[in-house]
Amino acid sequence: MKIVDGHCDALTKLYQNGKLDFNQDVLELDVSYPKLQQAGVKVQCFAIYLSETIPNPSFEHVLQMVDIFHRKIISHPQMRFIRTASDWLDVEQKQEIGAILTLEGMDALAGNLTNLRILDYLGVRCAGLTWNYANWAADGVMEQRKGGFTKKGKHMLKELETMGIIVDVSHLSVAGFWELVEVYKKPFIASHSNAYQLCPHPRNLSDDQIKAIIQCKGIMGITFVPYFLENMKTTVEISAILKHIDHICALGGESQIGFGSDFDGIEQWVKDLRHVGDYGNIIEALCKNYTESQVEAFLYGNWRNFMLRNLPQ
């Protein structure tokens, strides 16, 4: 079965350690070409995330990570940069793995919408508006004041409606989420979030938020962060992932479910899900609980349908 993974932080690791090789099956990378091939991943999203270890993150750092994406990832002859719906369809016809470039947090753009347009020109296709804390555009979900968007942030949302960049609400504050629903007129995604009803972590989404994603025909990427799946008193099993899928299905979101692992952005793992090459273990569990067509939709079809509707044509 083909797989789409909506979020990983391999780019950050490649930025932090110039000796890592994406083309080799190295322990330090949860996502590498051999592991993607092993799992049957057809499309992988790679996030530009500037770690808190960078004292003064700037747009130059973002551009450096775009450079790493080109030099170390899509330079592989079997990797293909997906910028348009046509690119996606071309990848389906070939023995290639598609790579989508995304942004996690607007901090380094420093409120300059020219920088955002440059990323659009460079092929960034999804953008998370915040990380956990506040930036010039909005509050993140862990910001204590629990605010929403700034005036400049709302203006940015209107600009995004004219671009080929899809909005990602993972990490956005609750107030910001509902302001976005009012202001932003396109479908949006939560690339790596789970259901708050099952695991009350601030990074997870309430039933009302999930219903809003369903209503706009967006996508919710179920993530493999153990403490977003259940309270970690013991080892978290793959069965916890299925409980979140069941819950979203019960809300009417069967067509909005995908996966967004957060591999390379985590230091704890679900049992039997240590890296992207372990996707086969999820497939095995899914096939015991859902029909083949449902499993194919969760793994690939739902992301595919969304992207073909919302990527530039």
Your description of this structure?
The chain is α/β, with parallel strands linked by helices. 38% of the residues lie in helices and 12% in strands. The protein is built from 12 helices and 9 strands. It has helices at residues 10-16, 33-39, 59-73, 85-92, 113-121, 151-160, 174-183, 207-215, 226-229, 239-250, 279-287, 292-310, and strands spanning 3-5, 41-48, 79-81, 97-104, 124-128, 166-168, 189-190, 219-222, 257-259. The strands form 2 sheets. Strands 1, 2, 3, 4, 5 and 6 form a 6-stranded parallel beta sheet that branches. Helix 1 (10-16) packs across helix 3 (59-73) and helix 4 (85-92) runs antiparallel to helix 12 (292-310). The longest helix is centred in the last third of the chain and has 19 residues, at 292-310. It is globular, with a radius of gyration of 18 Å.
Q: What separation lies between the terminal Cα atoms?
A: 26 Å
Overall pLDDT confidence: 97
Number of helices: 12
In N-to-C order, the SSE pattern is EHHEHEHEHEHEHEHEHHEHH
- Coarse shape: globular
Oligomer: single chain
Instruction: Provide the β-strand percentage band.
Output: 5-15%
Low-confidence stretches: none
Pfam families: Peptidase_M19
Organism: Paenibacillus plantarum
Protein name: Membrane dipeptidase
InterPro entries: Metal_Hydrolase, Pept_M19
